[in-house]
Write a structure and sequence with these properties.
single chain; BBP2_2; mainly beta; Porin; Outer membrane beta-barrel protein; 404 residues
């Protein structure tokens, strides 16, 4: 089994204060095969980990049902109940859910999270997460679809309080191979986010890549795209992007992907213009089967939950995954990020800059064939130039899960 630490879909634009629970997303078997064969690049799917256990007891024709249940106990301090008000609380989470595997091409998962706080300054709440993933191929085409929905009510770094958010994210992908060297990758995305009391937004975007294989292990690509954003508490905007990309598998143990370019964003209400560099780097190293190291860095621009603002986001993450004694799995990650808030009125600084660093450690082990257990620790610190938004938090806990 492969673990994939996912909290909420990427369209939710603000970081959570709480350590994200371990979550599982299943890629359909046919999509896994297309990815492993290199038939195309499914951007909306390539970060998801396969998890379909063997010996399945619930089958109804082409549909296989995988029920799952998890429990998490967490104690944390420095949790943001309101700007300038950091408190300690015990948090308990119960997550029953079900994954449907429909044939070999589709999976649907529904996972609610009921959350209980010991401190009354927080409200108990129910998060809901739904994901649909599918893919197929036709002649030289590879097609992919992902649809997610998330409803969350947790403390966020941007707002320094519990924030009620709902997000819909849709991704359509298509890739076409002209010959053994040249291929085309196309993507169309929609992200709709609503946040009670804060800025809500709708975004439509597209990105197309023309890829050329120089050597069997080296691909270069040129990409162009753009998007349009509407906001409830800010200016509508339109943007265009131009990027280059290099994908290199240097050896069987080392792989590298780099992309870089720029974005030109126009705020329609003020006619202000924001020109930003964009980049991303991902390096993976697996010296032995039980050990993997990775480093990633990226810079992006996105709309903010705050009125009349966008954010310039820069992040660096280093992670280690290690198998211990054949049964234990240790995952360590350290990250640093900076968020610069930019005014949509003049494309200048809005006066708030956040610098955040964190460290995460998770030790997990299996039991009773389908059960998993784990203990974890997270330290996070946010230094904000705006009063009331800085915090330092230590969180420790345990989690239990069982899946068919």
């Amino acid at each position: 089994m492969v673990l994939c630490a996912l909290s909420i879909p990427g369209s939710l634009k603000a970081q959570q204060v709480l350590a994200p629970p371990t979550s599982y997303v299943a890629v359909p078997a046919a999509v896994q095969e297309m990815q492993s064969e290199g038939a195309g690049s499914l951007r909306a799917l390539d970060t998801l980990a396969p998890l379909l256990p063997h010996g399945l007891p619930f089958e109804m024709g082409p549909v296989t049902v995988h029920p799952h249940l998890s429990y998490r106990f967490l104690y944390g301090n420095g949790l943001s109940a309101a700007p300038g008000d950091q408190v300690a609380s015990i948090i308990q989470e119960v997550s029953p859910g079900v994954l449907l595997e429909i044939g070999r091409h589709w999976t649907i998962d529904y996972t609610p999270i009921q959350r209980f706080y010991s401190d009354r300054r927080f409200q108990n709440g129910l998060d809901q997460n739904v994901s649909l993933i599918g893919g197929t191929s036709y002649e030289d085409w590879v097609l992919g679809l992902s649809q997610t929905y998330a409803s969350t009510f947790t403390p966020l770094v941007q707002t320094a309080q519990q924030t009620d958010q709902q997000a819909f994210a849709t991704g359509l992908t298509a890739s076409y191979r002209f010959n053994s060297k040249l291929s085309l990758e196309m993507g169309l995305d929609q992200a709709i986010t609503s946040a009670e009391g804060f800025n809500s937004s709708k975004q439509w975007s597209t990105m197309e890549w023309l890829a050329y294989q120089i050597w069997p292990r080296l691909d270069v690509s040129v990409g162009a795209g753009g998007g349009y954003v509407t906001e409830s508490m800010g200016s509508d905007s339109a943007y265009g992007q131009l990027q280059g990309r290099v994908q290199w598998r240097a050896t069987e143990k080392v792989s590298l992907q780099v992309h870089a370019g720029f974005e030109d964003r126009q705020f329609l209400a003020s006619s202000a213009n924001l020109l930003n560099p964009l980049y991303g780097v991902s390096i993976a190293y697996q010296p032995i089967a039980e050990t993997s190291l990775s480093l990633s860095a990226d810079r992006t621009v996105s709309s903010s939950l705050l009125q009349d603002q966008v954010t310039e986001n820069t992040a660096l993450t280093v992670s280690l995954s290690q198998q211990l004694l054949k049964k234990l799995s240790l995952n360590l990650a350290a990250s640093y990020g900076e968020i610069n808030y930019i005014s949509e009125l003049n494309a200048g600084s809005a006066g708030r800059v956040d610098s955040m660093y964190s460290f995460n450690a998770h030790l997990g082990w299996p039991f009773l064939k389908r059960g998993t257990a784990g203990v974890f620790y997270q330290f996070s610190n946010n230094n904000s130039s705006q009063n009331g938004f800085s915090y330092s938090s230590n969180q420790v806990g345990l989690e239990l899960g069982y899946r068919y």
